[in-house]
Design goal:
Length: 460
């Protein structure tokens, strides 16, 4: 009884009273350090034999480490009472500090151990310029998920958009100004919409929810269904005109999120309509030779995947049980599925892919009774051609004639970037240079086409 009361009390303390329909969570703090592994070369440079901790490469001005007088070239060995042995330790969930928390960094400096104490300093809020930005939260699984509302600074109710991002576990708050997601939501808000970004569980300022990396597909869908409920409660939302925009995995989640929730329309980009096992097999077959993997080696690897993916996704075996059965499994999983020796698969817990494979994606789209824009990027290497986007249109229009529209986005890749050829798209993915295109190649025309379609389906 006592522990439950204390847990409840802490939860209340993490809510800040604001004049809004939703409560704002205390901001997550920024540790303000860039760290790297403590190598033998660093040990020699510093004249130490210490093997604990990580090397502090950079202090980021204005944040916690600077306030505590942590210095570059310090060796960080402990945060509060948690030992730091690796770079990943710095990022562990138990060290997710909040604004104003008491914090201590224990470092080795000039061969002496020092404990530096102070208060954690929050991440800054997003600067929305001429737009109005509002932080809020909504309940989920005993905790709170943080949300961000962006809209024109004008009074009155507005058509609203819930944006659902792709597979990765990343915060949607304070993204790099050139990030394509930020450009998308800001461009839409500037066209007159109230745009909601709901964090995935555990991301951003979210509190006491499961970690994004640990949840399965239905849990993530349910989090966005709760987000949709919260959006409808916003006083500036025209509840007759709510649009869901899903990108990549978000596009696959969109019909499940929208079901029974009286949305006006869905914009879906970067999806597959196929079962997840079938899609992953096809992904390996088509992408790998174009990303530099020897064709015949890839064919041999596909034979391995026939058994491996069936055991993992259909028979629901754990990676720890399956990988030791064949030494080749670890090689292909590390190369293709972001395997790191845990139960992580494609950057998420394996249960996410297992439960996604259980879903009848085609049936979900067939049941969708709102308007749908199926937007296919001509140079999107992830969706493996236009089949799925066109199939979604056929499915919906078979059961709900006239409700779905196909949109081909010329010279557009999976990331809303203007890339004129598939060859360049594969090359940019292979050499890691996609990010360099974010500032200059975002497809603004795509946003206008989304806007024109939304205007054609909303109730005036």
């Amino acid at each position: 009884m006592t522990s439950m009361f204390l847990k409840y009390a802490v939860a209340v303390c993490l809510l800040i009273t604001v004049p809004s329909f939703a409560q704002q969570l205390k901001r997550v703090a920024n540790k303000g350090i860039s760290v790297e592994k403590l190598t033998e070369a660093r040990q020699k440079e510093l004249g130490i034999t210490e093997t604990r901790g990580v090397y502090i490469k950079k202090i980021i001005p204005g944040f916690t480490a600077e306030a505590l007088n942590v210095k570059e070239k310090d060796i960080l060995i402990r945060i509060n009472n948690t030992a730091i042995e690796s770079v990943d330790d710095v990022l562990q969930p138990s060290l997710k500090l909040r604004e104003g928390d008491d914090v201590s960094f224990t470092v080795i400096r000039e061969k002496k151990e020092k404990t530096l104490k102070g208060k954690a300093i929050a991440n800054p809020k997003e600067d929305a310029g001429d737009l109005s930005i509002e932080y809020g939260s909504f309940p989920f699984m005993g905790g709170q998920i943080s949300s961000i509302f962006l809209q024109p600074a004008t009074p009155g109710k507005k058509p609203a958009i819930l944006f659902i991002p792709g597979l990765n576990c990343m915060s949607l708050d304070n993204m790099w100004e050139e990030h394509v997601y930020r450009k998308l939501v800001y461009s839409l808000a500037n066209k007159g919409y109230l745009v909601m970004r709901a964090e995935k569980p555990g991301m951003g300022d979210s509190y006491n929810t499961p970690a994004c990396e640990d949840i399965d597909f239905p849990t993530e869908v349910n989090s966005f269904r709760e987000a949709l409920k919260a959006l409808k409660k916003h006083p500036n939302v025209d509840t007759n005109n709510i649009i869901v925009i899903g990108h990549s995995m978000g596009a696959m989640e969109a019909p499940f999120v929208a079901e029974g929730n009286n949305v006006r329309g869905i914009v879906a980009m970067g999806l597959t309509v196929k079962p997840w096992l079938e899609y992953l097999t096809e992904m390996v077959r088509i992408q790998n030779p174009r990303l530099g993997i020897d064709y015949l080696q890839n064919e041999r690897d596909l034979k391995l995947y026939e058994t491996l993916l069936f055991e993992l996704l259909v028979n629901k075996k754990n990676l720890a049980d399956i990988v030791p059965q064949n030494p080749e499994y670890e090689r292909i999983l590390r190369r293709d599925m972001n395997y790191e020796g845990t139960e992580s698969f494609l950057g998420r817990d394996l249960s996410f892919s297992q439960t996604l494979n259980d879903q009848d994606i085609a049936a979900a789209w067939a049941k969708t009774d709102c308007k749908v824009l199926s937007a296919w990027g001509e140079t999107d290497i992830q969706v493996l051609g236009d089949f799925s986007h066109k199939e979604v249109v056929k499915l919906i229009n078979t059961y709900h004639p006239g409700n779905a529209t196909f949109l081909e986005l010329t010279d557009t890749d999976h990331n809303f970037l203007l890339i004129p050829t598939m060859e360049e798209s594969y090359q940019r993915n292979a050499d890691g240079s996609l990010g360099s295109l974010f500032p200059t190649r975002f497809n603004e025309k795509m946003v206008e086409e989304f806007h024109q379609w939304i205007q054609s389906v909303i109730v005036k």
